[in-house]
Amino acid sequence: MFQIVGISRGLCVTLLCLVFLVDFPEQCDDVLATPLPYSAFSSSSVLAHDFGAGYAKLYRRVGHGGWSPLDSDRYQWLQVDLKGRKQITAIATQGRYSSSDWTKQYRLLYSDTGNNWRPYRQDGNIWTFSGNWNSETVARHELQHAIVARYLRFLPLEWSEEGRIGLRLEVYGCVYWADVIGFDGQGVISYRFRQKKMKILKDVISLRFKTNKGEGVLVHGEGQQGDYLTLELQSTKLVLNINLGSNQYGSIRGHTSVSSGSLLDDDHWHSVLIERYRRSVNFTLDQHTQNFRTNGEFDHLDLDYEISFGGMPLSAKSGSGGPQNFIGCMEGIHYNGDNITNLARRKRVDTSSFRNLTYACATSRTFPAFFNSTSTLQLPGRSDADTVAVSLQFRTWSASGLFLFAPLMPGGVELSLAEGKVVAHVYVGQGKNSRIDISSGSGLNDGQWHSVHFLALESFAILTINGDETSSVRATLPIQIRTVGDYHFGGYFPRTDLSPTQRAFQGCMQLIHVDEQLVDLRAVEQGMLGSFENVSLDMCALIDRCVPNHCEHGGRCSQTGDTFKCTCDATGYTGATCHTSVYEQSCEEYKYLGRTSDSYWIDPDGSGPLEPFKVNCDMTEDKVWTTLANDLPAQSAVSLSSDPERGAVLKLNYTVSTDQVYAVTSNAEHCEQYVTYACRMSRLLNSPDGSPSTWWVGRGNEKHFYWGGSGPGIQKCACGIERNCTDPNHYCNCDADQRQWQEDAGVLMYKDHLPVTQVVVGDTHRSGSEAKLTVGPLRCHGDSNYWNAASFNTPASYLHFPTLQGETSMDISFYFKTSSPHGIFLENLGNADFIRLELKSASVVSFSFDVGNGPVELTARSPAPLNDDQWHRVEAERNVKEAVLRLDKLHREVRAAPPQGHTRLELFSQLFVGASGGQRGFLGCIRSLKVNGVTLDLVERAAVTPGVKPGCSGHCSSYGVHCQNGGKCVEKYNGYTCDCSLTAFDGPYCTDDVGGYFESGTLVRYDFVPDGGSSHASRVAGNLTHEELTFSFSTSHAPTILVYVSSRTQDYLAVVLRHNGTLQIRYSLGGLKEPFTLSLDHRNMANGQPHVVNISRQERVVLLQLDHYPTVSYSLPEASDTEFNLVKTIFLGKVFETGQIDPVLIERYNTPGFVGCLSRVHFNRIAPLKAALRPAVPSTVSVQGVLVESNCGALPLTVPPMSAAFDPWKPDSGGVQFPFNEELVSRDGVNRDSAIIGGIIAVVIFTILCTLVFLVRHMFRHKGSYHTNEAKGAESADCADAAIIVNDPAFTETIDESKKEWFI
């Protein structure tokens, strides 16, 4: 396949340019109409003799000073015969001299023959010219593209409201002449080369053609080696097939096929230009150029003997006949500087295959009619006849439409197009339910000519499509046909009792037959036959709005007579023309949208040609890593190469294309790829002085002779850099060539060389040689485009870039932040066209432009101020269908393009970012400025521009909200990061729970540093009147201590689970004989489910919140102290402390210790569990026993808060019954069976758990002793657990613990 890379005008060889200088002189502005005689002008009608068409010459005052028709309506026209084919470059009009008559708007038709008119088109539409607003001012229009014609016809569309149609005109251009040759489908012009074989490096072929056939070869040449070049019509499209060479093995395939244009069988002239230099080709059809590169690797076109025009010579056709030859006319045929048509006249080329070579074009015999949605054509037929016989040819893009409606006595006949097939309805009565339906064909709305023949005779009807009588559809009629004699084509608008299912037809018809007789539409045009309304006769103005295809990125184009539509499904793009990517441009952008690690689709070039692709985004670190995997398995054994000199080649394929990989590496700040070479008697780089045995190939197919851990130009491995190789005489472990397995591993970090695409291993052919290769995924971090920013410090500051390129489609996006209420973001100007993005006020962003139809402005209004010094995103897009402005992805305004008008944005000035043309500039920051998917380098320009500085600070004001759970946003030059060090959470946004699983006997101890310590802990120690404790847990064991905070006095805070699993908080602050206790007796919390506890104390007020229930307030007694004195240590899971400790805690709750999960433990900005699992040096935290990191104690907050009135935890929730009251459950007879079943399941689970407990005890039993304040009996017991059991016989659940204690 090939890649369309743009439109090029630069490939013009000198000889070709000279050819066009002859055919189209540079100065082509002669006056063409004024010198003509009176008889060269004609019109549809005249108001009087002195208002004749011959008086319609610019500036002339003779007669009544111009032309005026008898009636002022849209059926009038003024025609000029230029007495020969002329090249026309401009037209001008005036109103009728000294009158109130002028023409405000008009259309221009042109023709070579005075029939088969073609409307002048511009920007993909039938163009409407603006005319005059008074009788004297001249309105001149330079044609966007010159036309060649003999006859011109002006059609007034709007005229003076005070008077009537009045017109004087002038036509500007020059003489046009070209040799014309008529092709009859048999004759071929053969241009013989001077040499038998030609190796052609460059070609230039130009010609003009016209035809009413949709198939035919225009140019053909081929060689015996398989090269060929063919230009042919296929289904009314022009197709260029070219092959510069393929090999016999099929590994190089040179065939390339490109199509252009549509509806080229319109019998109008079309110009073609083919320019080739090596593999680069410009293919131009009627001002539309496609630039592409041919497939394969060859540059020369090898042709034998000749190149032919008008078809293939008989010697080149296969036995089946091959493609059809061309039928029509060609002129101006040039091949590599030779004028082929001139050589044919001089008989210097072979034209022997022509039966009768003519140098003229045959006149078209068709007389088409063009219908729009308001058109109707009424034709007479035989009345009171027993036959309806109608046939016609049509072409359309609309899936539905009315061909014909003819009333009958009784009933009627409807012939229409429905969903792309022809349908005939024969109404046998006045009701719609009494009809006969016949249908045939499919997909007939493809823009091609199709024929329909309908015959209703006596008691049957036949429908035939495209003359295929074998597929005709026949139906029996229950009535005898009797005609009324009226036939309505293309539209039937009267509201009657019997109306057709379709109302109108949009498209062209020709060769209309009524009662088997060809209708003379020329007589209809002259008013001598039938009648019509809004039908354009003697022309087919059907436009293929999908060629060229404005649907980008593979969007599917569909159309009707008025417009086209793009379907963007499964393309990865959205918008009216599938221009805007639905994906972000990098993993970095996903991170700052608040996303977490996952696989994402990215589109690095936005609206550019690169397709979106899927990558893995790792956001667990400060850096966001983008990962691209390859298909090479780890430790891939290197097979023995059949060619020892070449070596074994291991190729790597990535999950994305080469261009997509390069897009990632080019935008990244850093890339790396881990490589490992395991070897046994297989040398790697053959260091220090030998030629490398192994090398790898990277970007651009370049060979590299360094290995992971080293760098370009250094023929060493990582051990050679670090000087720790197995053999110090070599720079790689494998180069020692030992029989034992060795390994050289490291990271390749020079991103311009990455990725690794293949590795060539050369030393595996010796006996005993073995090697294994591992190439890890390509990993990149950073997005230089996303943080590319500049600060504008003065109102006059600006940056300038090359002119914005976006004639028919463009987009601009950027982020900004400012404290100013107004300013110009950017602006680009043309002669009259412009584009501007502006902050109009503190809450309004404006997108304004002009493409020639007058200024258009879109505004997006934000409910909040935009000058809040936070980042805001602006996206603007304009295409031929609409303009769109988006603000912060929330506010959007869309403005549809006018159905008729200019569509091309023509700019010439530089693109200014900031102040422009003396207007008020922008104060603030702009970053990630992208135009058509390409990031403009603001940093580079700002570094050399006064008043503008590279970069921008203050990202936290916009993105700091993403730092959760007390995480602190920290500014960086190219972004921000979340500091989670003072939280109990981790991760890029401080949202990842840090928790651990405690086995029996495990404890975590966090010691506060005494006053004078330098750590953060010393700042939260001391005497406290306010503390906050938050944690979550899950366990199935009770009793136990969850959290204990001790002091150097007798003050403490303890959170425990009692024997029945209920929660208890114990506060001892002094002043009371017993600790202040909060006991929550409502629920067993040792149920294996996660629970969250939040405790906050301020002086005497204690606030408690459990899980998702409302906060409950308690008060310490008046006798209690309010200071928590000399906080010393936090214990999690168990207490192991010296000094005075509440004996109740030790005796009832401390043994065997907590078994389960704790998570997100936080006490006054201290996270002891996180400190244990994320150790630092020095550290005040220690762990005893087995602690395994796990977030099993985390509780997802998915349940909405419960109202206090129904809170079962609230002691004074008067009258509210606990939701799990057994009486409520058992009172319903249906639930008793469920209870029995649940009991059986519980017994089974309990048995399994007991077995597991026994196994755990047996596996983790340890012996030892230590001194502590444990329960009585500890001295005589084997362990502290045994002491608890001896003193409390009711306690039957025992789990041994590990007695080991260590500090980190």
UniProtKB/TrEMBL annotation:
Membrane disposition: Single-pass type I membrane protein
Pfam family, one: Laminin_G_2
Entries under InterPro entries matching the protein: ConA-like_dom_sf (IPR013320), EGF (IPR000742), FA58C (IPR000421), Fibrinogen-like_C (IPR036056), Fibrinogen_a/b/g_C_dom (IPR002181), Galactose-bd-like_sf (IPR008979), Laminin_G (IPR001791), Neurexin-like (IPR003585)
This protein's name: Contactin associated protein like 2b
Homology family: Belongs to the neurexin family.
Keyword presence, Ribosomal protein: no
Entry keyword Chaperone: no
Subcellular location, record wording: Cell junction, Paranodal septate junction; Membrane
Residue ranges of domain EGF-like in the record: 542-579, 953-991
GO CC annotation, single: paranodal junction
Domain called Fibrinogen C-terminal: residue spans: 578-627
Disulfide cysteine pairs (residue numbers): 925-952
Residues passing through the membrane, by range: 1235-1256
Residue ranges that the Swiss-Prot or TrEMBL entry lists as coiled coil: none
Source superkingdom: Eukaryota
Keyword terms: Cell adhesion, Cell junction, Disulfide bond, EGF-like domain, Membrane, Phosphoprotein, Repeat, Signal, Transmembrane, Transmembrane helix
Domain Laminin G, residue spans: 180-361, 366-540, 788-952, 993-1192
Species of origin: Electrophorus electricus
Every F5/8 type C domain range: 24-174
Signal peptide residues on this chain, from the entry's feature table: 1-33
GO process terms (BP): cell adhesion
